């Protein structure tokens, strides 16, 4: 059942391009059916864990494309907060399993206040789908590994489709730029395959860092959630303490942690704030932190700052989380394997959290 792979997690990492191909080919038409209040004033995303990180990327995507405010909340916080939602709010619940107790409770709370519920879910017929007004399936197939991988990039895929659809409806995007953006989106699976072909490069980085006692993951803007997700992947399967941080927050605390024992994964793909990330890298270097950079193919300049570079192919900045996720997943996977951990069933964790 592992299709020749040593672990389900690795198999699921490798399935991502085909999952996205399928998702985009059926989703392109299906997303047009989105039922959204005409007089919508905000979107609220509720989710837990990796699904929450997908929601954070969704916020950047929808706000920048459709110019609509998006609030992202952990389901476990939202449900007890007497949240500000009403019938002009679209609530998007994100869950791979559709059985996460806190997300179900959050949805019930939102419904009491008249909000419309759209779910992004992977499991057909799950409890969440029965509670929702509309469902967009991630079509990722069964995800067995406890660490979510293909479900995450599929959730991102749905957010991109939603963002584009809302942008068009709200006339924040012309037909031409909409078609152009779809063209870039459809190129992503092939670019993911390119990343997967370079696994040996990531494996070598993992072999040199699996003994580090702690990791920091830094990202900015749309890749800030990627940093959170990279840290979550590493900690849950390798048990190495790992923190994700917005790089701009370095000086507000985390820089105190930097020394030669700290590995710092810096997401430094090409973007309009690339130079800011480079300044952060210089600050870390000056304090002897061990830097692993995730950069865009062709960026030789980054090697002036660190020899440990993992390259991802060039794409539009707003789509980069769909590529950056893969080396982060593989890095976590290979580090956990080097440490002899049970990657598919890490200690203390269940695939779906059906109690609060
Ligand atoms: O089934 P869900 O997407 O609702 O699950 C949410 C989290 O429990 C889940 O993403 C968890 O954080 C994963 N183990 C992360 O890899």
UniProtKB/TrEMBL annotation:
GO biological-process terms attached to the record: carbohydrate metabolic process; fructose 6-phosphate metabolic process; protein N-linked glycosylation; UDP-N-acetylglucosamine metabolic process
SIS domain ranges (all copies): 30-172, 205-346
Subcellular location: Cytoplasm
Record-level Gene Ontology MF annotations: carbohydrate derivative binding; glutamine-fructose-6-phosphate transaminase (isomerizing) activity
Coiled-coil zones: none
Principal localisation: cytoplasm
Catalytically driven reaction(s): D-fructose 6-phosphate + L-glutamine = D-glucosamine 6-phosphate + L-glutamate
Keywords, comma-separated and alphabetical: Aminotransferase, Cytoplasm, Glutamine amidotransferase, Repeat, Transferase
Enzyme Commission (EC) number: 2.6.1.16
Domain of life: Bacteria
Cellular compartments per GO CC: cytosol
Active site per database record: 351
Role description: Catalyzes the first step in hexosamine metabolism, converting fructose-6P into glucosamine-6P using glutamine as a nitrogen source.
Subunit record text: Homodimer.
Protein name: Glutamine--fructose-6-phosphate aminotransferase [isomerizing]
Organism this protein belongs to: Velamenicoccus archaeovorus
